Amino acid sequence: MQITPPFGRLITAMVTPFKKSGEIDWAGIESIANHLVSTGHDGIAVNGTTGEAPTTSDDEKDEIVKVVRKVVGSKIKIIAGAGNNETSHSIEQAQRAAKAGADGLLVVTPYYNKPPQAGIEAHFRAMADATDLPVMIYDIPGRTGVEIESDTIVKLAEHKNIAALKDAKGNPAATSWVIKRSSIPVYSGDDILNLPLLSVGAVGFVSVCGHTVGAELKEMLNAWFSGDSKKALEIHQKLLPVFTGTFRTQGAILTKAALNLMGLPGGFTRLPLVDATDAQIAQLKVDLQAGGVKLK
Which residues, listed in sequence order, are joined to residue 155 by a DSSP beta bridge? Predict the structure, then answer.
C-alpha cells in the first residue's frame, strides 16, 4: 500500500540569503522562493540547517515564514524549523511559527546535550502537543550527536500530530524497518540517497540540491511513482556530481555559491559559516556543469 505524502513529494530546505552587512536580503528570499515554486516544488522548508537557523533570531524566523507565504500563496506548503536543544524554547518557536502562518513544523533531535531515548521521545511529544500543526521529526545523528532509534520513531509515529520523518541517518536498512513497522511517511534528507530511500518506501525528498536541480528531482519523483524506475535511475546518475559537489563543504555555503553562479541571490553566510573560497567555487562550477546545471 502506497503511503500518502502529507506535505507533497518535493520540498527544499531553503537558504536564507544575507547581505554582506549580515542583514537578511528580504528581496532575495522572495526571489529564491519564486524560483523554487517555478521548478515544481510542493513545499518549502524554512528556518532549518540550510537556512542557517542557529544564526537567525526568533523575530527573523517569523518574518521569513511570512515573506515566503506572501510569495507562494496557499498552494505551496511551508514547513518551519522549530527545534533546538532546549525544549521550552523549541515549543515557543513552534507556537510562533504556527502564528506566522506555517503549514507544518520540522523538528530536529535535540543536539549537543545527547539526551537518552526517553528524553528524545518526551521532547518530540511536547513539540507535537504544542500546536495543531503536523510535525516532521528530523533524524540526523551526524549533526545532533544522537540518533532517534527505530523503536522511538515507531512509538512517536502513533502521535496524531507527528506526520512524517525526515531521514538523514544514512542507514537505509534501519529506515526500511521503520517504514514496515510504522508506515510513517519518510522524506529523504540526504540527496544522494533520494532514490535508494524511494526504493524502500520513502514518499519524497526534503532536498538541498532542489535549489539547483529541482525540476530534475521532480522528474525523478514522477518517473518513480509512475513505475519508470529506469528513468529514475538515469536521473539519479546524471545528478550524482551535483549531489557530491554540493556537500564538499557545508551545504549552505556551496548552495549559496551555486545560486550566485546561476544568477540568483544566494547572498552571503553568517558566522560561524564562511563564504566559499575561489577554489571551492571553481570546483563547484565543474560539479554543477557535470550534472547539467546551467550557469550564468
Answer: none
Catalytic residue among 77, 166, 169, 218: 166
Tens of pLDDT, residues 13-43 = 999 999 999 999 999 999 999 999 999 999 9
Selecting among 77, 138, 187, 256, the annotated active-site residue is 138
Burial of 21 (0-12, 13-18, 19+ CB in 10 A): exposed
Q: How confident is the model at residue 237 (pLDDT cuts 50, 70, 90)?
A: very high
Provide DSSP, the chain: -PPPPBTBSEEEE----B-TTS-B-HHHHHHHHHHHHHTT-SEEEESSTTTTGGGS-HHHHHHHHHHHHHHHTTTSEEEEE---S-HHHHHHHHHHHHHHT-SEEEEEPP-SS---HHHHHHHHHHHHHHSSS-EEEEE-HHHHSS---HHHHHHHTTSTTEEEEEE-SS-HHHHHHHHHHH---EEE-SGGGHHHHHHTT--EEEESTHHHHHHHHHHHHHHHHTT-HHHHHHHHHHHHHHHHHTTSS-HHHHHHHHHHHTTS---B--TTS-PPPHHHHHHHHHHHHHTT----
Q: pLDDT tens digits for 80-106?
A: 999 899 999 999 999 999 999 999 999
Say whether 166 is catalytic. yes
Report, as an integer, the average pLDDT of 239-244: 98
Q: What are phi and psi of 200, to 5 degrees?
A: -105, 10
